[in-house]
Design a protein that fits this description.
Layout: H1 3-29, H2 33-58, H3 62-93, H4 105-109
Helix pairs in contact: 1-2, 2-3
Length: 111
């Protein structure tokens, strides 16, 4: 492993820990489900991708690096969908803070 790769992977791990901290701040700062889903999903998705890329830089075997990159792609695809489903379920139950929305297309369509 080269020195540049070590420094780059350490920087990515530091970035991932900073993103996890930002996700925790967003979770504590916002008070509704709709407001919490955005910062948590963005920060955690980017954090997991950063950890996977850092791990892919550190492993010796190329197949392990490919698996880590596939995990990152899977995270990028599934995390926004999961956040959308959580927000939609909170909207259906009525606990998502939807009373403050100026336009609520889901309520208007009856879904």
């Amino acid at each position: 492993m080269t020195t540049i790769g070590t420094i780059l992977s350490a920087g990515l791990l530091l970035l991932a820990s900073l993103l996890a901290l930002l996700a925790a701040v967003g979770l504590l700062r916002f008070n509704t489900v709709m407001a919490r889903t955005h910062p948590v999903t963005k920060a955690i998705t980017l954090g997991v991708v950063a950890v996977c890329v850092a791990g892919a830089l550190r492993v010796e075997d190329r197949t392990d690096a490919l698996r880590l990159l596939l995990v990152a792609v899977f995270q990028i695809v599934t995390a926004p969908i999961a956040a959308h489903m959580v927000a939609r379920a909170a909207h259906r139950v009525g606990s998502g803070g939807t009373r403050d929305l100026p336009i609520d297309e889901l309520r208007e369509s009856g879904r």
